[in-house]
Write a structure and sequence with these properties.
CATH topology: Hypothetical upf0131 protein ytfp
Shape: globular
Low-confidence stretches: none
CATH class: Alpha Beta
Oligomer: single chain
Strand content: 25-35%
Structural class: alpha+beta
CATH architecture: Roll
Order of helices and strands: EHEEEEHEEHHH
Largest sheet: 5 strands, antiparallel
Number of domains: 1
CATH superfamily: Gamma-glutamyl cyclotransferase-like
Amino acid sequence: MEQETFLYFSYGSNMLSARLCAPDRCPSAKPWGVAELPGYELKWHKISKKDGSGKCDIVRVDDQSAKVFGIVYEIDRAEIPALDRQEGLGKGYNKTEVEVIFKGAPLAARTYEATNTDPTIKPYTWYRALVVAGAKEHGLPATYIAELEAAPANQDSDKKRHDEKMALIGEAGA
């Protein structure tokens, strides 16, 4: 019998509960806590089809000391189509299974890896702020949060979009 839920490893803006758990996304999502994805680095090079800016991606590297921190969420299987849609499955991201370290033990989880990247693009400041807010919400290590905050970013020329996205942080109380 298939399980009614699945585990999702979020490493970008979906770490922010207010974003992932929105009614049109995955309202059933329950955060389990912080996990590490060893042998990967976080990049901001996924090309957004919506606004052309950079979004987060995980990239496997040879350095086994490298790791990406993120949040493991438990989500109802019925919300898989909503998560696939929000993650841009087939339109910039592919679904993949990874093994994260959660509470000191390996744990299998679903995540998404970018298929359309450009190393020269940068995220918008509001996107970086969403990622940082999610990291702070869940208590990721301070040094990792500082790395996220230091990522180069561009100001969005669409002030309305900027303000709408930044409002999510206020709603989250971050």
